[in-house]
Each structure stands twice: as C-alpha cells, then as structure tokens.
Amino acid sequence: MKRTELNLTERRQIEDLLYRKVNVTEIARRINRHRATVYREIKRNFFKDDELPQLNGYYGMTAQRCAAERRARRRKLVRIPALREAVIDRLQEGWSPEQIAGRLKFEGHTTTVSHETIYSYVYSPDGQSQELARYLPDRRKKRKPRYARTARGMMFPPERSIHNRPEHIKTRDSFGAWEGDLMIFRREHGKTNVASLVERKTRYAVLFRNNDRSSNHFMARLMNVMEPLPQTARQSITFDRGIEFSSWRKLKPGIGTEAWFCDPQAPWQKGSVKNMNKRARRYLQRDTPISTLSDRDMKAICNRLNGTPRKCLGWRTPTKAFAEELRKLG
Asked: Which GO terms describe its cellular component (predicted)?
C-alpha cells in the first residue's frame, strides 16, 4: 500500500537528523521518502515562538499533533452531519464548492468549511459512494493534487523556443507562419472565449469562438479551422506559454503544423496577434456576451479587420495580400 502521510516514527527521525545537521536530501534517503516530502514537512510543521525564538525548530511530537489537527479539520464533513447535508444539498443544486463555502460564511454559520475541504470530501470514498462528483461544474473521475501540475518546462521544451524558430519566419519572408492567442472575456459570461490567429506576412486575421478554455478543446477547434488551407499556408504557429496551448503536440501529426513558443512572460514576442487583438477589441469588448455571437457575426468582424488597408502591406488589405499568396501556391 502506497504511503502518503508521515508517521510519528519518521517525524522523530527527521527531528533527530536535523539536530545532527544532516541535510534534507540525506534525511529523505534515510527515511526512504522523496526530499520534497521532507522539505514540505519541515516547512509546514516548523515550530515558531516569537517570544522565545531560541525554542524555534522542528519537533516530531509537535509536528504529529499539527498533522492530526489538520486531518481533523479535513474530516469536518464526516463529523458534522448537518453541515454535510447542507453541502450536499447545494452541490445537487449545481453550486460550486467555492460558492458553497463562501455562502456559508456569508450566512454567518457557526461552523463553516473551505472549498478545498468540500473537494476532498467529494473525491473521498464517502463522496464517491454518493457519486457527488457528477454535480460539480467541472467533473473528473479523480482530482489532481493542488500543486501536482506538469512543469511548464516539460509542456514547452527548450527546442520549441522562439529563438530556435527558422529565420525566414522572423523576417516574414515566408508565407504560412501564424501567431495564435486567446481573447478572454468577463467571467460572468462563462468559459467562452475567442481564439485569434494572424498570418505574419500578410497580417490576415482569423477569429473563431471557442466554448472551452481546455487545451484539448482549443487544439481540436484550431485544427478544424486551419485544415482547409493548403499545407504550405499553415506551416507554423507561434504561441505564448499559456496553459491553453499545452496540447500543441497534436498539431504536427494532425495538420502538419509546427508550434513555437515565446519566452516566459514575453507575449510581446508575438506582436502581430497582440496588435490584431487590440483592433478586434473595438468590436469585441471584454463585457461582450460571446456565446450570443454566431459564426456569421465572427466572420463579419474578420472581414472588417481584413478589409482595412495596411501601411505595412503597401496599403493593400490583408484579404488581398492573403489571396495573392494563395494564388502563388497554385
């Protein structure tokens, strides 16, 4: 059986080894735990007394008591039937755990609960036996740990960096190199957003409504939109490192399109699409209820953007420049 939480014996070993100035990596090896587990244990259960700082330190028994208190708080929905029933009733009404927790505090209940505790209960054996997860707005078979996310370096490896992008893309000499982004709107309008694409050489813009911010959904929609173009008209797309673009590996086998990525916190490196987004915001302000816009509405906005003469194109329109490049492809 896989161990999760440290026990008292292990905590006493950590206390003893820290007293002997053994480093955390070696402590982890000796108690057969990952060093991140030991780092986290020391940080969470470090005893601190502002009045008697000489007593500050890690103590096994104190750490065990703190851990037990945290477990008791997490079990609040098991220990208090009235609270549990109130939470389940509101889950069944379609409320999110965050809404339930916030409302309990607003109503001044003597006993409240955090949204993390509600999630823990929903995915616990008790919650699974009642199939509570089906009432969540975002349903999963199993909840991932709060911080167990794939590192961005693994999602967007160095070889896909914008600095490794071919020179002809940077100079805009070749046709078929795009930039991609998402335009986000007010939260009360739901998860619907607008995906924006710009072909770098001709500044031709494509906008389409996207009903979900999940990466798989976005990439599937993107490939459907791009697939009708000739292969040489969709050679590459440059994105920033947003989580929405983490399924980029589907592009190459799907439609033969390479993906490149800006540096972290450097979306300005895909300036063409950012500039186009500013133009599009004239018609798609942040409080726009995107779900009410039809494909015809989105097409009309694209036509307006692409029908405007551009100085960088010698006052041709993006529509004209894009059509000329397609004709060259035969």
From this structure: cytosol
DSSP string, 120-133: HHHTSHHHHHTTGG
> What is the mean pLDDT of the segment spanning 288-292?
88
Judge whether residue 203 has pLDDT over 70. Answer: yes
Q: Is there a domain that residue 246 lies in?
A: yes
> Does residue 3 lie in a domain region?
no
The total number of structural domains in the chain stands at 3
Is residue 202 located within the same domain as residue 240?
A: yes
Percent of the chain with pLDDT over 90: 45
Q: Is the domain of 167 the same as that of 250?
A: yes
Shared domain check, 107 and 81: yes
Say if 251 falls within a structural domain. yes
Computed on alpha carbons and rounded to an integer, the radius of gyration of the chain in Å comes to 27
* Res 145 pLDDT > 60: no
Model pLDDT for residues 113-144, shown as the tens digit of each residue: 888 888 888 888 788 888 888 787 655 555 55
- 102 with 174, same domain? no
Q: Are residues 176 and 241 in the same domain?
A: yes
Going through the chain in order, the beta strands assigned E by DSSP cover 46-47, 57-58, 177-183, 193-199, 205-210, 236-239, 258-261
Domain that holds residue 198: 153-328
- Among 294, 298, 320, 325, smallest CA distance to 308 is for 320
DSSP string over 26-61 = HHHHHHT--HHHHHHHHHHTEE--SS-GGG-EE-HH
Residue 314 has pLDDT above 60, yes or no: yes
Same domain, 67 and 86: no
Q: What is the 3-state secondary structure (H, E, C) of 216-259?
A: HHHHHHHHHHHCCCCHHHCCEEEECCCHHHCCHHHHHHHHCCEE
Asked whether residue 304 carries a pLDDT value surpassing 90, the answer given is yes
| DSSP single-letter state for residue 143 | P
Can you give the pLDDT at residue 65? Answer: 85
Is residue 139 assigned to a domain? no
